[in-house]
Amino acid sequence: MPDAPPPERFRTFLILGAPGSGKGTQGKVLGSIPRFHHLACGDVFRSLDTRTPLGQKFVEYSSRGELVPDDVTVQLWNANVKQRVDSHMFKPEIDFLVLDGIPRNVEQAKFMESHIDVLRVFHLSCPDRTELARRLRKRALKDNRFDDANEAVIQNRFATYEAETKPILDYYAGDRIVDIDASQAPAKVLYDILAGVMTLDAWKELEKMKI
Fold first, then answer.
1. pLDDT means per 10 residues in the chain (211 residues)?
2. What residue ranges do the domains of the chain occupy?
């Protein structure tokens, strides 16, 4: 069977949720399954080549302690994805892209519209902020990031999520949004995500291909 042509926009699943909801965990697990390619926002910045013009632009903002503008963030993300395609780590003709941590706000979602075809937004919902705070403190202490276990820092992260990231749900409003109870066991959360994937025509078409 001849290779399928790459899509004009990457077929994409977004994992969205408040800090502590487990989106990074779910993204990594999905990324370990064939036909899913996981890319977290942190991966983009960790692999940044500061010798490139785009990398220099990032350094210019970060060295002043300023937030990187949304358009620059998306340019960095796009350059990273292209590297993954060129190196055949990510094969968009047969792989689904799984994103967590990006887009971080509606402005970034708008910039990314020409690059990604968002098939599903898996919203890991957990109204119990006490439970999420407990998870964040546990993770911060495990990773020796003691400042991140500070209550004020945790509450600030929640406030930032509510103000900047959660409105993405309204941007993608409709049947693309799948609400999942993030307080469940991680395996059950994964099961619910996969159930949401397997109802899609794009997934059924992929299953028919002999890969």
1. 65 97 96 96 84 87 86 93 95 96 96 97 95 93 86 93 96 95 96 96 86 63
2. 10-39+95-203
Cα 162 to Cα 16: distance, rounded to the nearest angstrom: 12
CATH class of the domain comprising 10-39+95-203: alpha beta
Closest CA to 114 of 176, 169, 163, 71: 71
